[in-house]
Amino acid sequence: MFQRKEVLSIGVCAVVLALILRLLSAIGIQPLQNGDMLSFLVYLQTGRVVRYPSASAPETPRPTAPNPTNPQTQTPSGLVLTAADAEAVKLNDLVGYGPNIQELLLSQLNWDLTGSQPTVLIIHTHATESYTKEPGQIYEEDSDYRTFNASYNMVSIGEELARVLTAGGISVLHDRTLHDYPSYNGSYDHARQTIRAYLEAFPSICMVIDLHRDALDFEEEPQLTTMATVGTQSSAQLMLVAGTDHNVSYTGWQENLALGVKLTAVLEKMYPGITRPIQLRPQRFNLDMTAGSILVEVGANGDTHTQAVVAVRALGAAILAMAEGVNLE
Description:
This protein is α/β, with parallel strands linked by helices and 329 residues long.
């Protein structure tokens, strides 16, 4: 009985402490804004270890155009999307809603990725996903096409995307939490807690990018492979996954789908053949948390890590092009 009371007292104190810290943080006491304190605060509230960066990405001058050598194809100036661009956007509708691609493409895009405060959050619901090893690549796999090695799993793909966006003048936060460890089940619930914590700490975030890699049956050969070309480089393909309100409340799914349609059209305009059809699914995949949420499958497990890096650089260049402004006709 004594031990039970002691545990209860400790639990009550932890909750009270978390509430006090949240209040002090909300009123702007600076010592509570650092990464370690935010991580500790989220741990008290949720029990999850979330790795906040120690500081937000530094603001850098916005260039007139992204670096033309990374990827090799130069971003077009004065990006314009027309009704004809809808033809390049393919949709695999697994729900049967039949959305109008052309209307979604030409709808207004209400976002702004500029500013000194973080506007983009990159996360990984399935962070340990990895690719087919290339000659000379030696690293331990936890299971088939999964590794804790952050140089070869989805964390490394997120690092490259963050680098491209930051170089283009966008303030980015990259969360490296392994939401699929120790258990793959519950990954989306864990990621949802992480996203919520970031949105509370950084209300300026208007785009959340969840990076995955696709796969089919690991026991069947050959493994799923995608193929594209960026400039002269071999690249994996990109596929956006869009959620709906089919299974659960999600009032903004069409707005998120519209963003995905525009991004796919821009990618095809810049790098023809780099996208696979958008998948429209019954689940919401945490995409309901912001109007700028996207889930991107960067290649598949049959692709190499090098090909995935080329693809995610193209993704970054397309996002930068959209951030500069999209003219609709």
